[in-house]
Amino acid sequence: MLSYRHSFHAGNHADVLKHIVQLLILQSLKQKEKGFLYLDTHSGVGRYSLLSAESEKTGEYLEGVARLWERNDLPEEVAFYINELKKINRGEKLKYYAGSPLLAVQQLREQDRAILTELHPNDFPLLRQEFAKAKNVVTKRENGFQQLKSALPPKERRGFVLIDPPYELKEDYELVVKAIEEGYKRFATGTYAIWYPVVLRQHTKRIVRGLQETGIRKILQIELAVRPDSDQRGMTASGMIVINPPWQLESQMKKILPYLTDVLVPEGTGSWMVEWITPE
Ligand SMILES: C[S@@+](CC[C@H](N)C(=O)[O-])C[C@H]1O[C@@H](n2cnc3c(N)ncnc32)[C@H](O)[C@@H]1O
Fold this sequence. Notes:
Helix content is 37%, strand content 19%. By secondary structure, it is α/β, with parallel strands linked by helices. The chain has one domain: 3-Layer(aba) Sandwich (Rossmann fold). Helix 6 links the parallel strand 4 and strand 5. It binds S-adenosylmethionine. The site of S-adenosylmethionine (SAM) has 20 residues, from loops.
């Protein structure tokens, strides 16, 4: 079943959190000269029109990236993310949103490379076309979870894997943990980030428990909620679980999350957390 389309959700509050964390990890990798591999297991199409019928239907970006677009008090980490989006908008108006592969490819240097996988029969051709001319980028219509076995360890011995499944199948909550185990076995020094939604808190807890049971150390959980947990339909929060995070990430996120919560959730129902699932 592949019914999830990211075009309905591009630029929402969950994308904002995910992509700020993603960019901070990439910035930290670039502090060393040596090249790295960026592996995006669930890429989507790379670029989204916020004027599309899908985007207009949900209007989710209006309560996400649009709330940051014209602010002049952005913390530097958030300003960096907005500037990366300004590059693809070429003007003052917010019309396009960059997905995780495009944000990442914008960061690559000569010595870095990316592998981008996407399974959807309509989305994959758009992804392939978006990066047809990009250097050091390979797009594959393959199962992203399998890449943790086939693409690791990278020859560079440095890398960042983003795992961002749609969770339309409940088994994704287990597959992300299995994927981490597979990846970690082959490449224990890599940085891995799992994006997760909070729809029902017990599903999120399954990921956390599963990761604790692997015995892997240095796992940081970062979350932004727009409403308290609920058993009604709908996503109340989202987060990123980062294995082997860069050392600055914890303090960077503790600094910017109060700002993001205030600006993205002016209704006052928001909250945030940064906690170690397992420390060093
Ligand atoms: C949440 S979206 C990705 C968004 C993207 N990472 C971003 O931040 O811009 C999830 C994507 O995974 C794709 N997908 C679902 N199952 C997959 C699988 N097993 N392997 C690769 N892609 C998959 C879906 O078609 C969808 O485009």
